[in-house]
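Chain A, query sequence.
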Amino acid sequence: MDKHYLSPLFEPATIAVFAGKDTPERQTPQAIALIESLTAQRFTGQLVFLDIQTTGTLGDLAQTRADLAIICLPAGEAIAALEVAGRIKCRAALVVGSGIPAADAADMHRVAKRHGMHLLGPNSLGFQRPRTGLNASVVGPLAAPGPLALVSQSGALTASILDWASQNSVGFSNVVSLGPNTSVDIAQVLDFLAADAQTHSIVVYLEGISSARRFMSALRAAANAKPVIVLKAGRKTAGNKAAQTHSGAIVGSDDVFDAALRRAGAVRVRSFVELFSASKCLASRYRPVGKRLAIVTNGGGPGVLAADWVSEIELELGQLSPETAAELQAKLPSLASLTDLIDLSEEATAEHYRAAIDAAGRDKAVDGVLVVHSPKAGIDAADVATAMAELKGRLGKPLLCCWMGDASVGPARAVLAKANIPSFRTPEAAVGAFGNIASFYQNQQLLQQTPPPLSTLGKPDIEGARLLIEHVLTERRKVLTEMESKALLSAFHIPVTQTILARTSNEAMMIATQLGYPVALKIDSPDISHKSDVNGVALNVMNATAVRDVFNNMIETVGRLQPGARINGVTIQKMANAKRGRELYIGLKTDDPFGPVIAFGAGGTMIELINDRAMELPPLNQFLARRLIERSRVSETLGDWRGASAVDRDALEHVLLRVSEMVCELPQLREMDINPIIVDESGAVAVDARIVIESAPATARNYAHLAILPYPARYEQIWPLRGGGEYTIRPIHPDDAQMLQDLVHGLSAESRYYRFVSSMTELPPAMLSRLTLIDYDREMALVAIHRTRQMGEDGEPVETERIVGVSRYITNPDKASCEFSLVVADDFNGKGLGSRLMLSIMEEARDKGLDEIEGLVLANNPGMLKLMKGLGFHIKPFPDDPDFKLVTHTL
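Chain A, predicted structure.
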């Protein structure tokens, strides 16, 4: 249970190879290439070559044992080989090939599932594990060992990257070529790489995903542990002619993919060239940093080009503090300038570069250093590179370089490659590579957010909203009228303008007089998506006569321009009096496969033309809502702008939180526009709204429609503590990291050994992050929080929180069972915490639909074994290790 379930696939001790007859003329070209790859270097494990056509007895076959079966045969023979692999107890299989149709692939999946094998393929070109000398692929020679993992859905691109890497001193921990119709998918491979000690960063080439929830779950886990760079092919156009709202028309699937990657903490690159640049930086194992890049150059032109690209991709030019600049100036040539760039002038020598790089490395206002060097007569470029190499180890910040030219700087590039310093041929590529490092840092902040489905604002009328939706669906309608849309918004406490429906011109006049002039008139029809397209909107109508005339003209015009439309009447609402308010837009679109996504930007009638949209996957919290607003272009107008006061940003953020609540609790929502929503210094009000719905499961309890599972606040409970007092059990979240570390520090050596089977005194940072930022969809950790109050130094009472126990489970690959762990603070033993934490985690696992919970307990841990027996667990020997007992309980 301590090894990853894909270890038999990627870390096999023994491999059975099925590649046909042992003579080349009877083997396929791919089988010949595979055998050459496998035998070109010594594999640290054992290779056994088998032929399904060989005559012999089952008794002979039964003597063969292997962790992994590698199969390179035609489809029909491959299925037979899978059957044989299952009979000799292989726990994983790789089917190498291409062009196998989906029907044959499905047959292979069924055979592998029946035998309990994890199947990579068919149509995979294999994988490489350089450190063990394993090249189970047909994508080229074995790569050099290194810290970078590559996962690709394209065999051709995998081969290209490996060819590039061999010439650029980039090594790999794993290389995996997936291909179409594979059973082990990209989510499972990411899950393995997240836990792989040899892998320090991951590059992914992606063409499509089958399950957004599983992909996001695995990607978030991987990006939480190490940097992940993604190149996605197959961008789609944003336009959607069938859309019934602005959201559906302007939000494209590629935009949603961007939002998903940001939220997962990964970084997206847009081109093959950028992927190589990112790979260089990841191979150098630079930690994520902020976005202030200092540029050290010996030529103004290249330095300015680099500075321009810094602005273009929204980084910041790192500038030395006045103290650092004054100290450095004395060490540089007289023509050197430190105003913005660190321009060393054409007279710069290696020592000048050394002084400048060292100064930038020590300055707290700089996050990374880019060295741009142009060939100069009398200056040895290799000496400059050597100075950089000597400084790299103690710099503590990303150090990149752009070596201009070619023929004269070859030796310098060799020095840089040996020192593992990323080197680029153009200033733009170098700046872009640093941008990837900075983006990873920014996206990690988004990854740390785990919002609940409901905010801390006043509770919405969820049941009332569901009844309204059910009523519309019973009428076999999908588009809510403006009145119904605003009623739905009001159920979630989103301010709306008062809107009253008039069916005749006389009713319109009476309603307008009661509301007060000026008023707005809008056609009310379930068949008209955009009212202004059919002259269905009239603003600033000033008196009763004008209301009557506008009403009659509107009904006549709409009937003529869209004769088949059903017309309920005309809505009347008082004009919003926010003269300097900003017209904004908040929308929703349901994407395939990522589900609902929330959009924000500039509103009004020109929304498609302005095309200002920022996106975020729900659920949101205030941090995410604020970042969503900041990413839009219209955010620049929300402060004091052209004589208008700054808008109430808190009110705008609250509306976004309310929309997030709607999305989480109402899975029937498909598209939505709140356009415009007018925001000024006094608040926000929705002037118009349009919502499209579809049938969905009646309950949103499991939030299956969301790509990211919300924080499961419903499992929060307060329990009495044996001996007095109380404690709270709730799901863990990332902010608990320090309290969890304190719990481990406070454990006795014996308790730590019982829990971790090691003598560790504290959790490593990567492990601590992994244990606190979890995916609630496939695992759960419940913490017991005990609060104490004591008097502070100022005489005021101070409340402190402490984690005094943790229960946890992780879902097994079979998706039907889970493995648990439990730890309780030594001074809280005997107070009933262990039993309650176990009962609570079992209840949550049962709620997820799991059938069994299991765990390993040290045989010399009588306290835990007694607790397990008291809870009704079955206790039996663990066959793989006599030091443990296997405890299981049916849920």
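The chain has 29 helices and 36 strands. The longest helix spans residues 427-447.
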